[in-house]
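Input structure tokens:
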């Protein structure tokens, strides 16, 4: 079953052999080359700014346009696919980063993740008092974002071992993944101008998968008082295809229902539209294969399955809050959801939660145990929408292998 039916049409950037870099659109097992399509005159009915953006080597120029431009291009592509467009077999393409990412912000939008992690470090006070009022986030490192398939080197840093009175410096002993969704900013906003929540999603071009690799021992030592730093900045992996918000429209869901007694969002974070359709019914899965599993040709082992609709904070709320102080978002900026976890044990989105900080190791089919990731482990994220009577819309995969030491 393909992730990329004609109802999806995600954007990516690729090279076919020694040819030039092109923007492409995935259709089943093929890629529509937009550069060739634009050069051939097949997009001449579109505005010149759209045609120029389609001939570029990254998605930034296309992202900088408006939702009206995006919708018009999508409609034209659907028409073209009914004829004989220039298609490249996906197996022959080398995928490249979809956009030049100027800034990257990682949120903490899952209350289940925040509660589970908080209970490990602060059993008497797992959820800090600001969580239900403000979408928590931190500014990540855009320079270390890598594309799916890139090897991940085990980072070194300071950590304080249990019972020790001083820290050590060396390779992390608690390397983890984080299952996240990413949102690419489109048009953006001017410096000093906040984006109202009613129009916040107009700033979002599309979605990808994100694995925000984390060194938990380094993170635990350094995060106070200013939050994540070297325990996060060594690598973040993204998937190559950007699925547009238009393609996901039929898979909308009501925003997570806050339990009775939780405060309502402040007015700048609340709208009727967001309450009714602020969530996306997107299934998210994580699989692992160890080096030993691959040597024995064993199938991947699923670690978790969750859903994006379980987030406490929506992407519209993230954008509205991010810009509420006048911060400007620019085309190609990436916002990530933070680890996506649900209420059930099988929906926990990282090993820190699944193993309870290493206390309950995961048993792999080989008999190997995992508290955290070992060298040679490969993590693969998947995301897809499915509803009765509708096609499956997928985000593809996002994978990374821990380099052998």
């Amino acid at each position: 079953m393909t992730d990329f039916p004609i109802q999806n049409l995600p954007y990516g950037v690729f090279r076919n052999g020694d040819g030039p870099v092109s923007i492409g659109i995935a259709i089943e097992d093929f890629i529509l080359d937009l550069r060739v399509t634009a050069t051939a005159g097949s997009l001449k009915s579109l505005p010149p700014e759209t045609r120029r953006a389609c001939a570029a080597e990254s998605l930034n120029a296309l992202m900088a346009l408006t939702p009206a431009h995006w919708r018009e291009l999508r409609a034209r592509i659907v028409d073209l696919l009914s004829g004989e467009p220039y298609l490249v077999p996906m197996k022959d393409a080398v995928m490249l980063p979809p956009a030049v990412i100027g800034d990257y912000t990682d949120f903490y939008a899952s209350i289940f993740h925040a509660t589970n992690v908080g209970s490990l470090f602060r059993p008497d006070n797992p959820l800090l008092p600001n969580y239900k009022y403000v979408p928590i986030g931190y500014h990540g490192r855009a320079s270390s974002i890598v594309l799916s398939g890139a090897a991940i080197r085990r980072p070194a840093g300071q950590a304080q071992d249990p019972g020790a009175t001083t820290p050590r410096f060396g390779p992390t002993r608690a390397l983890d993944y984080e299952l996240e969704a990413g949102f690419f900013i489109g048009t953006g906003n001017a410096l000093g101008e906040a984006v109202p929540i009613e129009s916040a999603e107009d700033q979002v071009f599309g979605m990808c998968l994100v694995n925000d690799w984390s060194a938990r021992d380094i993170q635990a030592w350094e995060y106070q008082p200013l939050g994540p730093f070297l325990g996060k900045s060594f690598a973040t992996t993204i998937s190559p295809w950007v699925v547009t918000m238009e393609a996901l429209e039929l898979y909308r869901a009501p925003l997570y229902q806050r339990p009775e007694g939780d405060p309502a969002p402040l007015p700048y974070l609340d709208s009727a539209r967001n309450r009714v359709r602020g969530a996306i019914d997107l299934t998210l899965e994580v699989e692992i294969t160890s080096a030993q599993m691959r040597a024995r040709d064993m199938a991947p082992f699923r670690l978790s399955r969750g859903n994006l609709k379980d987030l406490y904070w929506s992407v519209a709320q993230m954008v509205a809050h991010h810009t509420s102080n006048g911060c400007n978002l620019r085309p190609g900026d990436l916002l990530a959801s933070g680890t996506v976890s649900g209420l059930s044990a099988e929906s926990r989105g990282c090993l820190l939660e699944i193993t309870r900080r290493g206390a309950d190791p995961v048993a792999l089919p080989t008999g190997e145990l995992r508290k955290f990731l070992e060298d040679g482990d490969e993590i693969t994220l998947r995301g897809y929408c499915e509803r009765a009577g509708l096609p499956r819309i997928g985000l593809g995969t996002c994978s990374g292998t821990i380099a052998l030491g």
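The radius of gyration is 21 Å. The chain has a mean pLDDT of 96.
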